[in-house]
């Protein structure tokens, strides 16, 4: 996607893409659609994201959550909203009207519109991109999450991570150890770092953990001048990539069929999980 600082426009665009690709469930098959980081609001001011932030709530959801649930129901898919701003849910976080920071939450909705998982971005992008012309201070307005998150869909374990998390392989190892077979990585990579690092890092995480990596991306020049890399892709557990054509498509969809046998074969032939001599500690 090439999201704008306009929630309704982005919702309409998601609806358009899903309609165009006619994601329809033939009853035996589940579809998981992964939208990029900041899918409903991107390229505006951080203060606006704070104002948009909603409480995470299944009983009386905010307007972004209701709209996403409605899209999941309309298109009969599991829908992962890469991230939307929510009020912080971490213990000790600022909350309510006084909150100065929001959480970047990935929200997973079921085809019946139920919120079945949420993940708050763990690693925040406080980085001077190497040419030193651009600096990012995500932690100024975002509260980091506090937990590793996996969720079961139709017997398949799905791990959740966001964007800059990609550079922290321990998180992905932890999800593999919790049983992950698919890991979703909604992103908004910078043009500069994306060109250099996006594909090799995705392939590394897929290959070393023998999982599918589903990497949705923001792309193009956004309203505030920010440029994102695009090249959304799905990488299979052997490292083969299916990449969106970013030269011809500003927004669209790339898809793959989940193959349980491929995971089994790759894990049986190279049993890295059994050979691993390190244990993990989460701080
Ligand atoms: O700021 C927002 O509105 C939304 N958040 C983002 O775009 C985030 C934080 S600035 N982007 C990244 O994490 C890029 C990571 C990246 O590019 C890398 O690891 O190289």
UniProtKB/TrEMBL annotation:
Pfam families: CN_hydrolase (PF00795). It comes from the Bacteria. It comes from Thalassotalea litorea. This is Carbon-nitrogen hydrolase family protein. Keywords: Hydrolase. Signal peptide: none annotated. CDD domains: nit. InterPro entries: C-N_Hydrolase, C-N_Hydrolase_sf, Nit1/2_C-N_Hydrolase, UPF0012_CS. Belongs to the carbon-nitrogen hydrolase superfamily. NIT1/NIT2 family. Residues 1-260 form the CN hydrolase domain. One of its GO terms (molecular function) is hydrolase activity, acting on carbon-nitrogen (but not peptide) bonds, in linear amides.
């Amino acid at each position: 996607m090439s999201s704008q600082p306009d929630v309704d426009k982005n919702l309409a665009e998601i609806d358009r893409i899903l309609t165009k690709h006619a994601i329809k469930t033939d009853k035996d098959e589940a579809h998981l659609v992964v939208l990029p980081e900041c899918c409903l609001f991107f390229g505006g001011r951080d203060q606006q994201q704070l104002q948009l932030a909603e409480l995470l709530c299944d009983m009386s959801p905010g307007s972004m959550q209701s709209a996403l649930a409605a899209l999941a129901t309309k298109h009969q898919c599991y829908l992962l909203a890469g991230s939307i701003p929510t009020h912080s849910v971490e213990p000790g976080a600022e909350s309510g009207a006084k909150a100065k920071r929001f959480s970047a939450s990935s929200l997973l909705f079921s085809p019946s519109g139920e919120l079945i998982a949420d993940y708050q971005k763990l690693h925040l992008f406080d980085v001077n991109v190497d040419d030193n012309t651009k600096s990012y201070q995500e932690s100024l307005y975002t509260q980091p999450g506090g937990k590793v998150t996996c969720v079961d869909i139709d017997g398949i374990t799905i791990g959740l991570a966001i964007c800059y998390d990609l550079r922290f392989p321990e998180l992905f190892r932890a999800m593999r150890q919790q049983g992950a077979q698919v890991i979703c990585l909604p992103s908004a990579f910078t043009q500069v770092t994306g060109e250099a690092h996006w594909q090799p890092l995705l392939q590394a995480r897929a290959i070393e953990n023998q999982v599918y990596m589903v990497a949705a991306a923001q792309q193009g020049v956004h309203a505030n001048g920010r440029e994102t890399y695009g090249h959304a892709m799905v990488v299979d557990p052997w490292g083969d990539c299916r990449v969106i054509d970013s030269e011809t498509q500003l927004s669209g969809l790339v898809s793959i069929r989940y193959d349980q046998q491929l995971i089994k074969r790759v894990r049986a032939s190279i049993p890295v999980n059994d050979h691993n001599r390190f244990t993990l500690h989460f701080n």
